[in-house]
């Protein structure tokens, strides 16, 4: 917006030059101040930049013909551009065709632009076979519109104003062959074979270019290749004044009824609207003795159908003698018989009635919302400019000299193929048959996985699943095999029966492509969202090798989902040309890695299961060695089978006020849905927030009794709030779902009534965000804290982290979780283990858990590797020999259940305890290779140190909660998948609420609350015990912990000072052990310590000589 200084007198002229050129359809000038001593007035002239304009005016019967220099023109690339403004909703802009069946037609149809393009050498004899690409609407508004057609081979771009549609033509041809000529503005020979009769264009064209040739310029210069029939080279401006009826309750236009020389009355006008109901015309009839009878009975006549399509329609109503005739467009007239001669009253009311009760105007429905023009009463045209100036008739809530109609279905905001319809002020989506529901067909009616169907109580069968929920992908049908242990999702393809192959060579191989019942994008979403996928490959052979025995090059292979060639078979290592028999060490000839490579005359088998899910499913198989005498192969590719759903009950825990998660910017310009479960004891906090320059979206707990959903798309902040009659910070799971679209916003909390708000019909629509998406905290805004949990699923993006699960252990209890490798680990291959495992080594591990116990010593956690390394976390008494032991100290009260939160990070080559802020240095070669499993509780493996074994044999008595190792939660995963082969549970385990009690003690939460697990009632009596302990002891524990923390901090600082001095002065192990003894003597009070031990049994040097510096 720019401000300009105007003139100060009636004759002065002030010039302003813009520093930069602008391109606009409209300019708006707003006077800021007037000359106080003069009259109010304004005159503005705007001079544009240099612009070349070649214009042609078509009167509806004219056209331009561009004749080629040769008989036909064949092109593989075309660029056609023009500008036009039309007075009608129908008309041909461009047409060309060839005798072989090629054609191109650009025309206006129902005020939309349609492009017909055929590159096939087949002639379509019926118009029903012509497929059009349509774009834009309301193009008969007498405004200039730009068109650009770009074609290269089959790829076509059609652009109208600012809207572009990309598409590919059907058929085998790549070139467009047009015979003799191209016509612009109409089809001059409608009887020509292969063409279809259309209306000619009525309006103006400007700057018409065909492949760089200025057609209008050639016509103006009367070049011989151009024939112009009745075309003028200036654009006439018809005086068509329209008026817009803005209000559905109060708009009206009153015009006087002129006298008719022949008696009766006749009214004509044009209208366009989107509304299905509205008053067009009302008047009082004046007649003879039959008037009262006519008032007592209502006579009706109707004509036309579907006139609320946004197009201009002509209506006329006339009376002659005892008949009233009504005509709509060019349809047959409808008549009604009267009992006596009738004439119109003094005034005719269009669109509605005045607010006051006016005799002669009745409105049985809503007032008209739309546009009208070309009023004629008794064959006399009405000048709307006089109405606007107050010299003729009366009006209210009208807008003159414009038709302010908008197509609210362009662009189509109905998602997933929903059909859009509209009224004057809003649009509606018909979601029938799409598989989606909601105001914009955003929400899928199907579950996201077979696992989700099982949770609803369904049994095995065929189901439609939507892997990405409300994302772009649609639903697909799969078979859900719900076994006792797992829920398998089965996706079939077009060739599941055994296939025999003969006569193939490497130069001419046998190729089979597999078409699955789901699209590649749906398969990718299904595989990525599953915990594990597999596909069986049955391959039998006779004198048919998989690999060339001379150079090892593959003779047969399969292609993965990304189009990459794969040469491993049966679940073996990706990139390794071997089969399952090599893994199991039972190949018929140990000189080969596959049975088929033995190349025997008898049938061999290399069947296996592919389980590296990033490569699944198999999209193609290629077999190339079955051309020798007696050679043949038999294969069968089984269906894709997946189990597990990563999106089922995963969560994130926020243990500190500064805790948060951040993700890339939320893609939610037009629509987004956010759903999660949470539990907390905090009175308020932000669950989620993403901001832009001005726009934002936020979901928060605004008070213990209220959840709010707020956003701003540029129309001002919008806030939806739901208040609960019970506290929401009661440490129970609560469900929140927020959704925003261009049509409405909604908020749901548990089973409380849905909060709903419609979006304004005018204003900004797009939510423009540019920062990261924060879950739990936004910048400096503190989110839900005090160890709260949130489970989040966002639109088509899903981020899931694991939350607290609490389990009570006894002396014999243990949980072992085997970390799932992406492929099967080779067994008994020591000569290959080094290279394989080194590639999977880790120099960084992190672990976190909460525990309560009175036992010491006790084994808390053990992590082991395939190379017999291990990490052990042990609870032990202070005062013992601590060489090669990393300790993290804390001081719980004796003989009581008191929680301690342990968060340990091992970042090569250092050790960090997060809570105590201690750092321990290890030797430089502490590389942790190929993690195998994690065990909580009792350990019976005899490959560990005696000290570790002593603690491991005594197990752990107490509670473990919120166990996390790196980015996994093994305790949670083990409890949810007890039937999995990756999980081993020994002894008696009881899920408990001790984790909630631990949280309340550590973070000073409210006492006396009854905590639950959030997954149902407790299954033993520990709940009541812990509740009593929490209520009675929490106050004492709070005070005690405060004192202990202060003392520990002081002693730690004092000890750190002595330790630093000791390290600088002592360089040998004996001196280091002396320092430990002094420190132990200094801190003689009873204490417990958490021990962190790193061990590698492969190297005796590592066991005997490694020193850990503290």
Automatic annotation (TrEMBL):
Residues 55-235, 242-403, 650-841 form the Laminin G domain. The lineage of its organism: Eukaryota, Metazoa, Chordata, Craniata, Vertebrata. SMART domains: LamG. This is Contactin associated protein-like 5a. May play a role in the correct development and proper functioning of the peripheral and central nervous system and be involved in cell adhesion and intercellular communication. Residues 1-49 form the F5/8 type C domain. Gene3D superfamilies: 2.60.120.1000, 2.60.120.200, Galactose-binding domain-like, Laminin. SUPFAM superfamilies: Concanavalin A-like lectins/glucanases, Fibrinogen C-terminal domain-like. The keyword Ligase does not apply. Belongs to the neurexin family. Keywords: Disulfide bond, EGF-like domain, Membrane, Repeat, Signal, Transmembrane, Transmembrane helix. Residues 441-493 form the Fibrinogen C-terminal domain. It is found in: Membrane. It is a single-pass type I membrane protein. Pfam families: Laminin_G_2. The chain crosses the membrane at residues 1026-1052. Its main location: membrane. One of its GO terms (cellular component) is membrane. Residues 405-442 form the EGF-like domain. The keyword Repeat applies. PANTHER family: CONTACTIN-ASSOCIATED PROTEIN-LIKE 5, PIKACHURIN-LIKE PROTEIN.
